Every structure is written in C-alpha cells, then in structure tokens.
C-alpha cells in the first residue's frame, strides 16, 4: 500500500463544489505532478466539512492546516510553499486558525472543537466515492456484527437502549419504530430512507449522503435485517445531483463487495436498494406523501393510521427513517446502545446536526451533543450575529418550527425542551435573526413557504394557510386591525388542530410563536401602523427634517411628484424653501433618500 | 380478522366489528355525520375534514371516515367544538366559492349549500373569493367542470382512479392554486393509444357533492321539482340499475343506483345516453305505405290491414310462409308475446332474434357440453376471481361496467390473460396478451390444454367425477403443441405456456368471452373449446370461476329465455318435446307446430327466394345488423308484407308495409334479464309520446284480433302467465324481483335464485362432455385480390345499429363517422393517412370509412365497428355455422382503396 507523507483534503460537497472545488482539486494534482511530489502527497476529495461560509475548504494533514476560501490561483502557492517546502501559507488560513501568529489545526478552531461528530464523522474525512476508505474507518463492521453476531431482536434492543429518536422532525423513538415494523408480517416489506430534505436552508441530509453514503446503505441493510425486509428505497431530491451520483456509486460498490444484494456476506440475507428521485415538493418529506410519490402518484399525505409500519409502500409494512437517523445507526451497533445513550440529556440522546443560517457568522453544518445550549451553538460555534448586531431570535425546525428569543438561549437543546417552548427540533434547520428582522415579516416569510408547499388536499391547510397569509399581508401593509390579530390567532390554532398532516398542523407555528414572543411587534403594526425594524415597506413614512437646504434634488427624482416646497423659507439670501413629502402619494421607493446630498441627509424614514 | 368491540357514540352504545370506522358505526346508530369526500366504495382520504368528531383521549378531533373504532372508544359527534370546527371548514370553502346558488342547477342537492344552512354559516365572509380556481372546462360532450364551484374534496379523482380505473382526473398545482384537471383529449402519438383519457362515464359527475361537475343538459330543473324512478339500463347486457330523473313528464337526467349489479357505476351510454327518449324522430303514429310512400294512419286502420294480410297469407301459403323477429331490446313480457304470436297466431316456429348473430353458438355450444347456454357465474363474483381469461371480448368498451370490475380486481392482484387480435384496453394491464389472428381461438385453446395436460396442471378429481370423453379430447390436443398453436395463432409459444400455467394454476380462474369466440362459421366449436378448457381445470361449478359469455344487449338473455328462438319454447323447452308442446297448447288454446323453425339467416334466404311471404319485425334492424346488407335488402324487398314495430323509422322500417310506433324502455313496465341471468324490473317513468303504444299492448291486441286469449291488464299479467309455463322462471314474480332482481334458475317461489350454475354437478346431462375439436379457420381468408383480414366489433360510444345512440348528440359527436383501424405498417403499405376517408371492399360490397392509424392492431388486420349503416356489414361474410347458423362476422377478406 502506498504511503503518503501528506494528505490534501478538498471538500467535494455541494457548497464548495459550486465554488469550483473540483477544479481546485485538479489544479492541485497537476501542481503536485509539476513539482514531482505527486507520489508523496495524496489529494482526496471528501464530503462536506460543515463550515460552508468559508468554502472552498482545503485541509492538509498531518498538520490539520485549515485553508479557507481557497481560489484556484492559490493552489500553486499552497503546493510550492506548504507541500514542497513545508511552510504554511498563513494568509490563506481560516481567520480563526491563526491566533497571535500561532497556527491552530482544524480540530482546534472553535467551530470544530465544540462539536461532536457521529453522523458526520466521515464527512470531510474520507473519499465518499471510495468504499475502501469507508471500510478503513470501520465501515460495514456494524453490518457484519449485526448479521453474524446478533439476531434481529438484539439489533432492535440495542437501538431501544441507545435512546435514538427520529432525526427527521417528529422524534419518534427509532427502536420502537423498528419494533413495530418488525411486528407486521407480510410477503414483502420495505425499508425506506427519507432523503427529501425540504426546509429552506437545511442541508444536513445532503451532506451526509454526499460525505458518507455508505453509512446510510449500511444502516438500511441492518434495518432490513432487523425488520425482515429485503428491499429498500432511498427517496432523494432530484435537486441533489451529487448526493444521487454518490449513492449510485456507493450502491454499485457495495454490491461488488457483496455487502448489498443477494446473499450478503454469505449469510443468506438479501437486501437491495433502489433510488427514487423526488421532484422537490416539500410535502413529500411527510412519510405517507413520500410513499405515494414512490408509488408513482402525486405526493399527497394519507390519513394515519394505518401507519407505514403496517401499510406503507404498495400497502406493505414499511420502515421509514430519515438520513441522519440512519447515519447514527452503524456507530450504535458497533459501540453499543449504552455508549450512545451516555451522550446527551434524558429525553434526547446522542448528537444532532444543525444547519446554521440566517444572521450568523459561521453559516454551515454543525453536529453537537444533545443538551448543548442554544447559546453555545449560536455564539461559541456559530460566532454570533455578524456586524455586532444584536441577536433577536432563532427559528428552529424550519418553516414548521417556531421562534425562540434571547431568554431561551440557555435552554439545553432537546426534543422536549424545544417543544415546551413552542418550537421543535425539526430536521435541524436553525435560522438566526438579529435586530434588523421584523418578526411579523419572518412569520409571513415562513407561511408563504408553507402556503406554496401545501399539497392542496385538506381544507384547513389549503384554504386556511392562504387566509392566514392574507391576514399577515394586511398587518404588514398597515391594513390590519386588532380584530384581524385575534382572527389570525384563532385561524392559526384552527389550522394546527384540524389539518390532515404535519405540514398543515405545523404551518402556523411561526405565527403562533412570534405572536407569543413578539406580540408587541404585531401591535405596533396594527395599532401604530409602524414596523419597528423598518422591514415592512408599506408602513414606512418618509420625512424631510429641518436639515433640508431646499436644493430640490429630491423633488426632481420623485417619480410621483409628491415632494413640493413648503412656505417655510430657509435662507433669506437664496429664497430657498424647505421641501415636504405628501405621504398619501408616496410609494416609498427611497429615490429621494438617494438623491439628498450625503452631507445634508435631510430625509429620514420611520 | 375482525373482532367485536363496544363503543359509545353520543352516549349510545353499539357493538360492532373493529374493522369499521366511526362513521360506519354512527350510521348504524342513525347518527348523521356530514361528509364531502367520503364514499363507501372508496378508500377514506380524510381530506375535507368535515366529518370530524371528538374522541375521548385524542389530542385533536378525529375524522370519522378514516378512524377505525377501538374497544371502549367514547365518541361525541355534536359538541360545540365539533360543530364550530365543521362550520370553520364550511366557511373556508364558502369564502372561495362563487355566490351563485340563486342560479345553480345543483341548488337543492348541493352538500355545501345544505351543510351551510345546517351549520349557520355566515354568508358574509371577511375573506373574498381568491379566484384561485377560475376556469370552466366545457370541452367534454357530456358534462362541464366548473372549477370555481369545486371544493376539492377529491372524490372525482378517486372515483376515476379507484372505481372507474381510468385515472383521467387528477390534482394540478399546489396550495391554494390546487385544482382538478381532467384529461379530455387523446394525446396519442403515432397511433399509440392514450389510455388515461376521459371516457365520459359520468361516474365523477354522478358523485360530485357540489355543482362543479354537472351534466350538459338543456333541461333546467331543480332537485325538488323531479321524481326519480328506478329502472334498468337499455343498452348492454350488464343490466345497470339507475334512476330516471323526471320533470314534467320528461327524463332530464340519469342517476346510478348504489348496490346491486353495477354498484353505482355507469358508462357513458348509461349516464348520458337517455336523450333519444325525447328525440323528435320518435314514431308517434302508425304508418302505412301507400304507393311507396308512408302515410300516417290510425291504429284501427293499421291493425285491420295487418290482420287481413295475416289471414290472406295463411289461407294462401300456410303457416310456414310466416316469420317473426323478436327483440333483444324489448322486455321479457314482449318477447314472450312475440313468440306466442308467431307460434300460436301464425302457427309456425319461424321466430328468432338477433341472439342468432351474437351468441347462438354459446347457446348451442354450452347447452350440449354443460347443460345451459348462459353465463355460469355472477358479475359480483368477479371480486373473488384469481385469474381471468378474457378472450374475444373488448370488455371495457362492450360491457364497460364489467370491464371496470375486472380492472379493479386485477389492480388488487388477480392475474389477467387477454386473447384478442387487438391490443384492447385490458391488454395493457394483462400478464399475457395473446394477440392472436382472428379465428384461431380453437388452436389457442387446444394449445393451452396441451400444456396444461402435459404439465399435469389439470384437475384430475374434477374430471373423473364430472366429465366424459376426456380420451377423445386428448387424442386431438396432443397434436397442438405450444409450437404448433403459436404458429397458427401468430403468437409466441412462451406466451401460450405462460398463459396456460397462469390459468391452470389459479385457485379460481374464470373465462370471459364474447363475440370474438362466437361469431365464426365454426363458432359453436369455439365455444365448446372454452368449455373444454374450463372443465379440464375444474373451473366450473365453483364461485368466481366459470365460463362467462357476455351477452350484448340489455335483454338478449331474456329474449332467448322467452323462447324467441326457432327450436325452443320459453325456458329452453324443445318445440318437439310433445309434453312441453301440449302444456302450451293447453294454456294457449291452440295446436302448435312440433317442427323446428327457421333461424334468422335462413328466414332471410327464404324471404329472398320468396318462400317466406310475411315477416313481422319487432325492435330489430337487420338491414344494418346482419351480414351482407345487399342480401338482406333483397330479402325484405321480396316479401309480400312486412310489419316493423319500433321507436324510430329504422333502415329496416323503410322496407315495411306497415310501421307501428312503439314505446321506449322509459315508457313502459316489464323485465329485462341481464347477462348474469338476473331478472330485473324496468318501470314506467314517463307517458308515451303521441299515439305510440307499448310493444306488449300492440301484441296483445293483435293476439286478441287473431282470436287468441290475451286479456293482459299490465306487463305483470304476462309475466305471471310466462312464469307458470317456464320452469326456470317459475319461482319469480314482480314482488320478489322488485328490489335487486333475481337470477334464474328459480323453480319455486321459495327458491333464492341461482348465483352460479352447476354447483351440484351437471345434472341435466349427467356429466359434462369434452368435445374434441380441430382448428378449422375462417371460411374466407385474405388473398391477392382481398389482402386484408377484416374483423368487426362494438365501440364504447355507440350501440348496435345506432338507432338510439345516433339520436344522442354527444354520442354522435364523439364518434360521428364509420372508421377503420389499421396498423402503422399497413397504413404505410397502402399509403393511408390518418382521418382520411377510404373505400373498403369485399366480395359482397363496399363501404366508406375514416382511417384510424393505431398500434393496437396487427399488420394485415383491420377493424371496423358494426354500428354504421352501409358500414362493416356491407362487407361481412354471411357464411354460417352449420350447427347454430351464426354468421362469420368476425373474419372476412377485404381490400382498401382511396376514395
């Protein structure tokens, strides 16, 4: 086996790939060849490192040197200086990796040192397109253990001991789910991986599939063994081309190695996996809608019960787990349920992956032990709000979740804790808002998303969310009344109580939680007709202050001719008069502010 | 397995099976729970949320339609929360619904309207209609879809996909923009048939809870202005039950009846094909031809003339110069009287009807092998069949509701073998489609049996116990190796083997066949081959199996049962059986001929040669329906006297000396017997137009004028007389059949009727008989002059000779022209273009037809429908089956030319 003195790991996740990381990789290979050290240094394309904000990312081992925002033009220097001469190129390092001229390794920077990686453990470490690397990192050991040393009941018991709960949103105990699926006997049964990740800004599942596809295949095969299924489906969005292609490669390799297909590892157990591409409907993340879609129908949820464990794909017993849930399973089988349950807090065990987004410095993917506080995630790992803005709220659980405020920052993250506060764990979206965000507008934004994504099947969700949005529109445009506010609240709870599936039931959550925590902002919109943050344009008013010098620049650019001189003469010498804006005609385009000379800055909006 | 559980609804206790829903439980207690999307026949979707109820211990309200009961469950259906929630649903729906109740046809039977009233919905919503669904689809001939009124309950989508199995209706878009979309147009490319196109069955229209899907009609009516009269569909032999909706003595709509034969499903003709009833072309006055022109006359004058001609002819030429054609469209009572008129009034057994053209070979073939010439099993048993062999039946077009039921069953897992020269709709979901050459059924059956026998898949015990003559059969079938059969039939031998295994290894395998089997010059043998196949595998005398000839017309089974055949009196009692004849002589007070009469084709030959002088045709149209039109026209012209009794002036009536105006099915009482031997009522819904009379009234008067006793006050009196002389109907009366009809044989008044035949063996014959049969092939095959094989059949949108369907605007517009289906290669070979009119000729005549290029037909084979005058039957071969005289409609040689 070839021994290399250095390994250059370049991120091949979607984020870095779109910033040309694959070209960077090619460039590095050709540079190394040019320098004649290509037999000493190995270049590896890996999955996502998580700190997407800083991409493209390149890590050089054994030092763990963390280069960020690497450009193609930087490659030559890294190759010549670092890899040939051994001198770290400091100006290309991630800014936190250089403290007082001391270079920190990737493991030492705050972003990584405070994380704990189980589901993501292989991401950014191995080449996802090479099964040997996965195997070298204990890959498929769990499958071997399950098939050769454990019976299905023992596998399920181990899961129950681990305390693992579904990572897709609802947090149902995974062991119990497997037990249900195992209890239904039929001639055909299925295991299904829900990789229809749809929350805006969330990409936990994508990164796992891109970075360690075999973890999912291995776990699904174990699930097939434990529940008595011989066929698996991975339902993945067609918008994830890299994930799909890596899954295809992984399935092919696993079959070649006898780790998938007929008679796996000569144990007589057969399991095959087929990929089904989703067309991007958010509702297909709902398990019964997903099943409909797999069957070739329009993705619309079914009523439950019967649950998929009893009647799922083609009416047969089906186990459905989310990608991240599966990704935890090989480690649990290998290291034991006890080990897993030692991590976290009583109702929530293990780790959880979050996609940090919004007003946060370190946009990216983090995996933290359950029980970590929101503050630790947002400040210690995420680096807080950029530009020293004040933190206002964090939305967990994507559009189905709710907003939490600064008073909740010390809450340990866990399923029950978040629900208690009116939000939810969800699949792991975490969107941070700062003082500039209007919370009514935020609620409207999320509702707009769920309105569009409602499948249209049940009346409360289809008609109700649209009306809810209509009420928010009225409020945001200054047409709302106090009566509308109570209607809003009433309708929100109505939809929550009466919709058919989780999409509808949780669609009003952003409204309900913002109403709870930021009612004053709603009242400002409704009573004062003001948007405290100035986000809601229709509520803004433009005024000309007494700083006005009467130059008339604003009046000349105003498209509605609503700026006119007053009778108030500013300068006797020039005879210039102060201007005034007729707010009944103003369309709030902001052209006047632009036109007012910066030195004067006489126009303000409130 | 279901268990009994006890639950409490509104403090009332009920003990029910645990596989029932709360909704079903509530209905048992007569507790009303409102629903929009629910239908007993569909999987619950819980989409409208109208049926919510409170279940103790549940976090939210539960939908009663989809929640199964649990032991100890406590349910409340009328709490404040429940009522407010339902009201909320209605308010959300109403806010986005046009305020048009004032002018909406649905007003009075609209669920949204009814519930809004019941739940005190405030009509002034603060929300305004969003116009998110704003289109009206008017493109269908029979119904409109107004998306604005749609509440998106999704029932139409489910009915189309789960019941009708067409899947032409779906949801489009998402969120508030979600709307129903119906695929109205054929997107077929290069002759590849589009299977998911609306077939206008109207099943969605008939179940829409609001005014979104409405039939196109010129009659304005509201629900409270109409009467509804249950009756039986007058088209095919399925015998669908529906209500005629009547306003001011006019049928304004058809509404299916749930339960029973069709369980609420109809086809396009059933749903919308009623409009001929009020067509201005209806005959209203008797007509007498004077100097070649029809002149209106009184009944007195017409009857006098007919009686005078009867007496003259009888005196001059004797009874054998008479013949009568009875009608598969008329009631049992009328058929009974027609054969009585011919036998007792004319003194001859020259009575026949169009069953001669469709299932004469079935009657002949099955009676001699099994004992009875009818469908052995029942329509409802389709639900239990494991494997279907559908052979020579384009079921989805000819018997649409049975076709749908087969599709439903196949969707649920049953296997399907289709043997047909065309890739018919069913072939698309078949496990094997044997696209055989026309006329090769016997070779196929022998090939299948060869495999079944050689692979030991036959039912030895059944054969030993119930059959004779196996050895002779084996002698023949051993020659028909899969290779040989495959070669004759033009299919692959693997498919024959596969089909044989599928059919023979099923627990319950059923054969469904129609005219692809019967209409051959060796048709009786084709039928017997089917019997051989079923007997060899023990698939007779068991539920959900059998040999099931699908009868074509509404009462063709009944017309046969009533003895409108030249060899049998009612109930298949032979005319030459002296005891039987004596029984009838006693009842009718005349002496009867023991001599078997002429079959229809022979009558026409005899008329042509002027041996038959007088013909009485009731409700038949041989000029269009019989083979070799020119020959028929000559025969009718050569008659001395022709009486035609019909509802329209048919092509045949044009040849008549006297035309008598008759009543349609909507204007009279009586019974039809459907394809599964079920005797069902038809009921008078409207009064007769003009001076027309019911066929039974006309015949009664004629019988009386001929000196026979015929004092019938109503149809029921005739039925009583018939039943008293007909053992298989003896136990039936109007009271017993009132609700759901009953199936013969029903020999006594406490007999429950017969669901399937031969349960207790083949008692009539002792044992069933295997018949060794060689493949013979059609009498006319293509040659260099006439190089193409023509096969014929029915289309969904027309019926028989179009007498009725041509007078229904939408049906006529859907299939306006005679057409010919050709394969893409055949089209290329003869340079035929899609939709161009060409001349098709055979040795007997020629016809003009519009070209349809389709991949559903083999090269060298062409298909034409038989409905059109001067159409397919200008070309067909009148070659007859020796045994039963059925003509070879299914195969003849033709050529095509540019017009």
Short description:
Chain A is α/β, with parallel strands linked by helices. Chain A contains 24 helices and 22 strands.
Number of strands of chain A: 22
Q: Count all strands of chain B and give the number.
A: 40
Between the first and last Cα atoms of chain A, what is the distance in angstroms?
Answer: 69 Å
The helical percent of chain B reads 25-40%
Oligomer: heterodimer
Helix content of chain A: 25-40%
Give the second-level CATH assignment, the architecture of the largest domain in chain A.
Answer: 3-Layer(aba) Sandwich
The number of domains of chain A is: 5
Share of residues in strands of chain A: 15-25%
Given the helix and strand composition of chain A, which structural class is it? alpha/beta
> What is the H level of CATH, i.e. the homologous superfamily of the largest domain in chain A?
NADH-ubiquinone oxidoreductase 51kDa subunit
**CATH fold name of the largest domain in chain A, please?**
Rossmann fold
Level-2 CATH architecture of the domain at 360-549 in chain B = 3-Layer(aba) Sandwich
Biggest interface goes to:
A-B, 29 and 35 residues
- What is the C-alpha radius of gyration of chain B, as a whole number of Å? 28 Å
The overall average pLDDT of chain A, rounded, is 93
- The CATH class of the domain at 360-549 in chain B: Alpha Beta
Number of helical elements of chain A:
24
The largest β sheet of chain A comes out as:
5 strands, mixed
Task: Give the strand line-up of the largest sheet of chain B.
Answer: 15-14-28-27-26-16-17
Q: Give a quick account of the main beta sheet of chain B: strands, pairing sense, barrel closure.
A: 7 strands, mixed
Which features characterize this protein?
heterodimer; A: 606 residues; alpha/beta; Glutaredoxin; Rossmann fold; Ubiquitin-like (UB roll); 5 domains; 5-stranded mixed sheet; 24 helices; globular; B: 899 residues; Dimethylsulfoxide Reductase, domain 2; 7-stranded mixed sheet; 6-stranded mixed sheet; 28% helix
């Amino acid at each position: 086996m070839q021994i290399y003195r250095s390994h250059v790991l370049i991120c091949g996740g979607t984020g870095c790939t779109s910033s040309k990381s694959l070209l960077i990789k090619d460039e590095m290979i050709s540079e190394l060849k040019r320098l004649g050290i290509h037999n000493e240094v190995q270049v590896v394309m890996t999955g996502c490192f998580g700190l997407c904000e800083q991409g493209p990312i390149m890590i050089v081992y054994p030092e763990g040197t963390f280069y960020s925002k690497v450009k193609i033009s930087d490659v030559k220097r890294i190759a010549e200086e670092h890899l040939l001469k051994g001198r770290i190129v400091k100006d290309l390092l991630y800014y936190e990796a250089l403290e007082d001229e001391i270079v920190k390794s990737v493991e030492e920077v705050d972003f990584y040192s405070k994380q704990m990686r189980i589901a993501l453990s292989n991401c950014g470490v191995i080449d996802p397109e090479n099964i040997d690397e996965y195997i070298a990192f204990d890959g498929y050991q769990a499958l071997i253990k399950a098939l050769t040393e454990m019976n299905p009941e023992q596998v399920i018991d181990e899961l129950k001991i681990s305390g693992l709960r579904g990572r897709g949103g609802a947090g149902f105990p995974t062991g119990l789910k497997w037990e249900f699926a195992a209890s239904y006997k039929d001639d055909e049964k299925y295991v299904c991986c829900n990789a229809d990740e749809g929350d805006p800004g969330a990409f936990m599942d994508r990164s796992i599939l891109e970075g360690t596809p075999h973890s999912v295949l291995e776990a699904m095969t174990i699930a097939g063994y434990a529940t008595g299924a011989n066929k698996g489906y991975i339902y993945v969005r067609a918008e994830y081309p890299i994930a799909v292609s890596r899954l295809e490669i992984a399935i092919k390799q696993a079959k070649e190695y006898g780790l998938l297909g007929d008679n796996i590892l000569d144990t007589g157990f057969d399991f095959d996996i087929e990929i089904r591409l989703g067309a991007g409907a958010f509702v297909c993340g709902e398990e019964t809608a997903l099943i409909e879609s797999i069957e070739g129908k329009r993705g619309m949820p079914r009523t439950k019960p019967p649950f998929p464990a009893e009647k799922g794909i083609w009416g047969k017993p089906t186990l459905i787990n989310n990608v991240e849930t599966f990704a935890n399973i090989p480690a649990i089988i290998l290291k034991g349920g006890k080990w897993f349950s030692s991590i976290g807090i009583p109702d929530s065990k293990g780790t959880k992956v979050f996609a940090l987004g919004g007003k946060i410095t370190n946009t990216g993917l983090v995996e933290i032990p359950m029980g970590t506080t929101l503050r630790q995630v947002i400040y210690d790992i995420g680096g807080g709000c950029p530009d020293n803005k004040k933190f206002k709220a964090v939305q967990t659980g994507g559009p189905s979740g709710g907003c939490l405020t600064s008073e909740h920052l010390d809450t340990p993250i866990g399923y029950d804790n978040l629900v208690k506060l009116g939000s939810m764990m969800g699949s792991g979206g975490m969107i941070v808002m700062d003082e500039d965000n209007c919370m009514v507008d935020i609620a409207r934004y999320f509702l707009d998303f769920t309105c569009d994504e409602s499948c249209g099947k049940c009346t409360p969700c289809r008609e109700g969310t649209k009306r809810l949005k209509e009420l928010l529109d009225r409020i945001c445009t200054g047409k709302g009344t106090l009566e509308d506010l109570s209607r809003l609240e009433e309708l929100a709870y109505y939809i929550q109580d009466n919709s058919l599936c989780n999409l509808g039931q949780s669609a009003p959550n952003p409204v309900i939680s913002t109403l709870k925590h930021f009612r004053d902002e709603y009242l400002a919109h409704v009573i004062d007709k003001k948007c405290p943050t100035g986000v809601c344009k229709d509520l803004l008013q433009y005024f000309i202050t007494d700083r006005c010098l009467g130059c008339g620049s604003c009046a000349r650019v105003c498209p509605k001719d609503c700026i006119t001189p007053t009778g108030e003469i500013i300068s006797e010498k020039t005879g210039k008069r102060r201007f005034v804006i007729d707010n009944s005609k103003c369309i709030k385009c902001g052209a006047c502010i632009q036109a007012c000379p910066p030195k004067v800055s006489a126009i303000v909006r409130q | 397995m279901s268990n009994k559980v006890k639950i409490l609804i509104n403090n009332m206790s009920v003990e029910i099976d645990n596989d029932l829903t709360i909704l079903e439980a509530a209905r048992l207690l007569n507790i009303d729970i409102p629903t929009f999307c629910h239908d007993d026949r569909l999987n619950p979707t819980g989409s409208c949320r109208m049926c919510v109820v409170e279940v103790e211990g549940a976090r939210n309200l539960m939908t009663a339609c989809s929640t199964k009961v649990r032991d100890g469950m406590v349910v409340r259906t009328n709490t404040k929360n429940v009522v407010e929630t339902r009201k909320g649903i209605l308010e959300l729906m109403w806010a986005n619904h046009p305020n048009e109740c004032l002018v909406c046809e649905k007003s009075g039977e609209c669920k949204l309207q009814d519930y809004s009233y019941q739940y005190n919905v405030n009509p002034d919503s603060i929300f305004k209609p969003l116009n998110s669904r704003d289109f009206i689809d008017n493109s269908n001939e029979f119904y409109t879809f107004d998306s604005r009124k749609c509440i998106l309950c999704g029932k139409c989508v489910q009915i189309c996909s789960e019941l009708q199995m067409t899947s032409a209706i779906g949801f489009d878009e998402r969120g508030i923009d979600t709307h129903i979309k119906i695929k109205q147009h054929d997107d077929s490319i290069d002759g590849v048939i589009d299977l998911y196109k609306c077939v206008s069955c109207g099943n969605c229209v008939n179940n829409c809870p609001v005014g979104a899907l409405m039939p196109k009609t010129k009659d304005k009516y509201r629900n409270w202005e109409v009467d509804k009269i249950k009756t039986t569909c007058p088209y095919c032999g399925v015998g669908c039950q529906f209500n005629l909706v009547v306003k001011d003595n006019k049928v304004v709509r058809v509404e299916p009846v749930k339960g029973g034969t069709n369980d609420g499903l109809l086809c396009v003709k059933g749903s919308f094909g009623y409009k001929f009833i009020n067509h201005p072309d209806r005959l209203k006055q008797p007509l007498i031809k004077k100097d070649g022109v029809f002149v209106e006359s009184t009944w007195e004058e017409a009857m006098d003339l007919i009686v005078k001609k009867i007496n003259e002819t009888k005196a001059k030429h004797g009874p054998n110069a008479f013949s009568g054609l009875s009608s598969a469209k008329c009631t049992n009572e009328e058929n009974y009287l027609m054969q009585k008129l011919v036998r007792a009034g004319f003194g001859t057994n020259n009575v026949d009807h169009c069953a001669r053209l469709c299932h004469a070979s079935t009657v002949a073939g099955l009676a001699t092998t099994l004992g009875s010439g009818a469908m052995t099993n029942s329509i409802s048993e389709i639900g239990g069949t494991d494997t279907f062999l559908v052979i020579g039946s384009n079921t989805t077009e000819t018997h649409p509701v049975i076709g749908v039921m087969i599709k439903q069953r196949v969707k649920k897992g049953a296997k399907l073998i289709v043997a047909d020269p065309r890739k018919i709709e069913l072939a698309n979901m078949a496990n094997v489609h044997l696209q055989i050459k026309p006329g090769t059924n016997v070779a196929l059956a022998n090939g299948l049996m060869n495999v079944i026998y050689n692979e030991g898949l036959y039912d030895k015990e059944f054969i030993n116990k119930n059959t004779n003559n196996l050895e002779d059969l084996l002698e023949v079938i051993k020659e028909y190796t899969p290779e040989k059969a495959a070669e004759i039939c033009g299919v692959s031998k693997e498919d024959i083997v596969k089909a044989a295994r599928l059919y023979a290894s099923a627990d319950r395998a059923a054969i469904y066949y129609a005219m692809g089997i019967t209409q051959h010059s060796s048709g009786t043998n084709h039928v017997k081959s089917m019997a051989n196949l079923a007997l060899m595998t023990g698939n007779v005398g068991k539920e959900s199996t059998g040999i099931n000839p699908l009868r074509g017309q509404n009462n063709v089974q009944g017309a046969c049962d009533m003895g409108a055949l030249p060899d049998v009196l009612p109930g298949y009692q032979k005319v030459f059986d002296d005891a039987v004849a004596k029984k009838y002589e006693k009842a009718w007070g005349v002496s009867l001929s023991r001599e078997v009469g002429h079959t229809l084709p022979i009558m026409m030959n005899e008329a042509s040669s002027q041996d038959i002088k007088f013909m009485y045709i009731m409700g038949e149209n041989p000029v269009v329906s019989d083979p070799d039109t020119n020959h028929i026209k000559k025969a009718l012209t050569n008659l001395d006297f022709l009486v035609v009794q019909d509802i329209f002036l048919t092509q045949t009536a044009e040849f008549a000396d006297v035309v008598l105006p008759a009543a349609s099915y909507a204007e009279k009482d009586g019974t039809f017997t459907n394809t599964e031997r079920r005797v069902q009522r038809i009921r008078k819904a409207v009064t007769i137009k003009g001076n027309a009379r019911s066929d039974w009234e006309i015949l009664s008067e004629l019988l009386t004028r001929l000196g026979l006793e015929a004092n019938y006050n109503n149809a029921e009196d005739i039925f009583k007389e018939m039943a008293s002389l007909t053992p298989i109907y003896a136990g039936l009366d109007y009271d017993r059949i009132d609700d759901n009809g009953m199936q013969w044989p029903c020999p006594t008044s406490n007999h429950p009727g017969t669901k399937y035949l031969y349960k207790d063996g083949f008692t009539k014959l002792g044992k069933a008989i295997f018949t060794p049969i060689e493949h013979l092939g059609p009498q006319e095959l293509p040659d260099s002059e006439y190089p193409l094989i023509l096969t014929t059949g029915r289309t969904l949108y027309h019926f028989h000779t179009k007498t009725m369907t041509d007078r229904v605007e939408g049906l006529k517009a859907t299939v306006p022209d005679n057409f010919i289906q050709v394969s893409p290669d055949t089209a290329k070979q003869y340079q035929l273009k899609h939709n161009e009119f060409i001349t098709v000729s055979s040795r007997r005549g020629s016809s003009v037809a519009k070209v349809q290029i389709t991949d559903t037909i083999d090269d060298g084979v062409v298909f034409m429908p038989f409905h059109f005058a001067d159409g397919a039957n200008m070309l067909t071969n009148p070659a007859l089956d020796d045994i039963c005289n059925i003509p070879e409609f299914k195969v003849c040689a033709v050529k095509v030319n540019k017009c």
